[in-house]
Batch of 3 targets.
Target 1
Amino acid sequence: PSRDALIARLPKAELHLHIEGSLEPELLFALAQRNGVSIPFASVEAVRAAYSFSNLQDFLDIYYQGMSVLQTEQDFYDLTWAYLERAATDTVRHVEIFFDPQGHTERGLAFETVLDGIERALRDGEVKLGISYRLIMCFLRHLSEDAAFATLDQAMPHIDRIHGVGLDSSEVGHPPSKFQKVFAKARELGLHVTAHAGEEGPPEYVHEALDLLQVERIDHGNRALEDAALVRRIADEGLTLTVCPLSNLRLCVIKDIGQSPVRKMLDLGLKATVNSDDPAYFGGYINDNFRAIADALDLSEAEIVKLAENSFTGSFLPMADQIQHL
Ligand code: ADE
Ligand code: ZN
């Protein structure tokens, strides 16, 4: 239908994408062989079959295990380049990519191995695919704030190559307040700040992300809808929410795709965007996410265009660059 054609050709930005979550089973297998890393799967099909999750933690266990095949700078390049080529086919023009340095430094890799490989692919993507980028370093919230500070210290010699910080991993039991000091430091350094909040955690965590971390965006934000005062605040401040429909479905945050919060957010005048989160694990890239909700939420063409526009105006690009894409 014409909606699919519109989605296919609309320029868009992806604002919520964990680069390690774009590791497709085929590349996972190839890297395991290349690096002599053993993985507990006999085939690509067996890997895909294991991607059945009943909550966020279920997924995270498999996601951190999958990272073990990433060993060299070239591995991070190949991972990132594969994502960018795929994103280009979805007419993505700008990406703001999350990476999880602690998932790698905890395994003994150098921070630089990770950063250099990802960034080299991003630079190639800018030249060869015309996709601009920002790079967002996430702190793993199941680890301590001291560990986050240690990661920020490792990043310091390269801080001009990192545009923002985020907060991800197991949400419940690890509220934003745990990371108040390290986010204050990041802001002092002039970094952009965002955080996963309200994916599984309560509205209170979204309040904390805003009040204590002073985030510029909310990643997911589903459960913010439970709190009317919070909804009003998000609307008044024009904050962007990076919603991930297929992720929500596969992690059982919603029961069916028709329950995606995008419908309510649009109706409430909130600035929602559509993103793929961890596409290799959740069965779809950005256009797959758009198509899934376009049908289920019966989005109008104007609403689809609005979601794509929100992705640029909600990005960390300077205003002049945002406007170029509208
Ligand atoms: N890390 C990768 N994807 C994530 C998600 N959806 N929520 C929290 N942490 C993550
Ligand atoms: Zn995420």
Target 2
Amino acid sequence: MCKYDVAIIGAGPAGYTSAVRFAQLGLKVAIIEKDKLGGTCLNSGCIPTKFLWQAAKTKQKILKSLEYGIKSTIEPINFQDIINRKNKIVENLSKGVQRLLESYNIEIVKGKASFKSSNQLVIKTDNEEFEITADKIIVATGSISKSIPNVQFDHIKYIDSTDALNLTVIPKNMLVIGGGAIGIELSSIFATFGCDITLREIFPQLLPNEDLELAQEIAKGLSRQGIKVEVGCSDALQDENKFEKILIVAGRQASIDELNVSNINLQTDKRNYLVSDDYSTNIKNIFAIGDITGKCFLAYTAGQDGINIVEKLINHKIEKSNDPIPKVVFSFPPVASVKDCEFDNYQNIVYGKFLFSANARAQIEFERTGWVKVAVDKDSEKILGVWIIGANADELINIASVMIKANMTVCDLSKNIFFHPSLAEMILGSCEQALNKCPDLPKSI
Ligand code: FAD
């Protein structure tokens, strides 16, 4: 039986990041994966959605080429070609993860892991079953799609996000249930390729935890694309027979059933997640990182968990992270936001806003829709939050994140020279407007 210092179950961003860190420190590491290396993010999450969004954006850019005096036409699109290209990118990136793991001599164990004891795992493949042991076991098994009550995925009409990302023909129409990031992104993509989309959300706004103004603006953007948006919708399936496909993206659930946690009495919360503040579980040599902890459901926080767990186990300390977490939704236009972790504790907040239509670069790019909104603490002038709807929000938000993490004030920011003409100038403009330092700009819209 093979014995390791550390065995990691799941080769998504949480699992493979921690595997590399452990190996860099000279430990003998095994990573067990039942499916493809790279996990949800690479195979059926971040990468495929952003590839398809980019394909949709390319189509939209071509349709707008006449703005520059360039006439163009688009031949009928074979969606299978787009999916094939998406698969190629995914495959290349997955091979990259494999090379990375191999370069650190990490043992890649293909198969489904389950617990036999607190330091023994049974690995099952189609043809064999074997055991490995490890001093420490890290559970990084992620999350999977969750359906709504009384509906099961049949993966034909009632589909999940993975099915949607592998459709080879654009459906005539589709009901999308769930107005979170995934529902909005897939609605935007499929609508661009001609699918008649109805998007239903049970809460009174899209992105229920996001700034209301931003959520309302997203809804307008989706409507401009011809998407029927229905919020506060208690019966999402009221007319289900009307639709060719029903895409359910109403939440995620812990990917834990196959682990046999009851064998070793590994305790979960009511939702079946392995929740803890410091990655520990009730069993002293077993830890949990990434989506399986039921907290963030983001690839970059999962990757950060992968680094933190190594710090915890090797250096016996855990950096309590209060870093601002940027959030992005790839709609048309994209939206993004980031807030100081202590945002809710500030009492004296002022807001500033800068319209894309007032920015030269946005004019040049014919991207006049949207705004940048900032929140500033009036007493200290510290920048507390940034919300962006408009072209390149997905990239601009990283600047905002750095500003907030660095505790920048408006004065600090204004000492920086921004390239002109750039979209980033709007971040400075909105900050200055919050403090009324820029009287020429519109104060509200
Ligand atoms: P996962 O990536 O889910 O990896 C877990 C791995 O464990 C899987 O490969 C699984 O096969 C394996 N596994 C499970 N059980 C076992 C077992 N018993 N034995 C062996 N292997 C096992 N996040 C972003 O940051 N940005 C985005 O743009 C973004 N877009 C997304 C779009 C969609 C459609 C979806 C669904 C998610 C998206 N996410 C995005 C979320 C992101 O994909 C996840 O937060 C991230 O992948 C979680 O990483 P993880 O390592 O915890 O788990």
Target 3
Amino acid sequence: MRVVKKPRIADTGRGPLGRSVKGSNGPGPIGPGEAVGEAECKVCGMNQRPDVLPIVSSPIWSLLLACMLGLAVALTAFSKPASADAKLGAWIEGVWPDAEAAGVSRKTFDAAFKGFTPDLKLPDLDLPGRPSNDARGQAEFTRAPSEYLDRAYLIRLATTGKDLAAKHKATLEKIERELGVDRYSVLAIWGRETAFGHHKLPHDAINVVATQAYLGRRKDLFRIELIAALKMLESGVPRSLMRASWAGAMGLTQFMPSEYFKHAHDLDGDGKTDIWNSIPDALASAASQLKGKGWVAGQTWGYEVILTREADCGFEGPTQERPISEWAKLGLKRANGRPWTEAQLALSAYMMSPAGGYGPSFLVLENYKVIRRYNMSDLYAVFVGNLADRIAGGGDFVTPWGGTGPQKTSNIEEIQQRLMALGYDVEKIDGKVGSNTRKVIGLYERTNKLKVDCWPSDTVLDHIRKTAAR
Ligand code: CA
């Protein structure tokens, strides 16, 4: 059996918990679901190999050996799943004390694990035999910002968002009054997470978080989610409602089980917290989560700016945060041409260019960091912030997103490794184009008098290789 592998492209707008649903980015969505296929290869080695016994010439010996081999294969076939089952059973029993301590009954616990089989097709699993990049849930390519922040898709979502803002006016006003999060940002989370409820969630939440807790790369984190998911069952949430993304996020605004207990909010006051079917509950829950993560009422997320020679993209990142008045002294202007107001100049912001020199740059504020805490990704936060602006009636990017294609993960890793070896302040070797990576590339380009674009291009990689060879 031959499995043709397609190159996998990471949805860089997906946070560490893979919250956004596959396909929630409109055209050409490539999400976590693409990471399947390798599991089929796990049985490839069991194919019959008639050529392994060339030294046996006697037909009788051949027959005997063939029988012995057949027996061995049969034994293997039976013993392997049995030991795997025993291991799984022991692991499930190991979860019980934590579940019991969290108030889960044995009846709920047993029902939850009845017939449980780990879903080996999920991404981010730590499975022996999978290529190392798959074990880390990492794709061969990193998705281009221009694709994630697809303008046509944002416009479509904003159009729907405006209609929904009118339709749910009373609910959204109540959320603003009670939770202090503006209606546009709440709608933008709903739009980004499930395209306003249009995306169907493909997985059973218990299966997903149990698989991740048993075989995932981040077992401890998902064990907490598993206990919380069991508590949800115990509290009376029907399992049939608990449909989830590959990482266990549920409902209209994609709640992780642990967040459900912290932030789920019964806004319609019917005594039930229904993040699946009640739009008021789901939106208030999202707002409550944003509030819990530090939302600053009455403030926006950030401003698109035009960079200068004095303040290029090498100034990117939270470590270089400063008052906007300081940025203004370095020449940063708003991209829309409006002057900074006194109130804006007093705010603290950091610079962020998701596509380096090939797209818009932003000065981002506290609420940007809050959106990132909802889903740890720059592209996600820009998407949500920009969609909120568009629903509010503005928001188009002044600087277009350039044609930076998908980036090869291995190239980004090599750049990170080589820059670290050259003494640059590289935070981690992860093959991803985050703030820190863009910044250090910018600093390298500045030092070496290259065009400062803060982007992991082949040109800069070649240059770094030559520098390293010297
Ligand atoms: Ca309710």
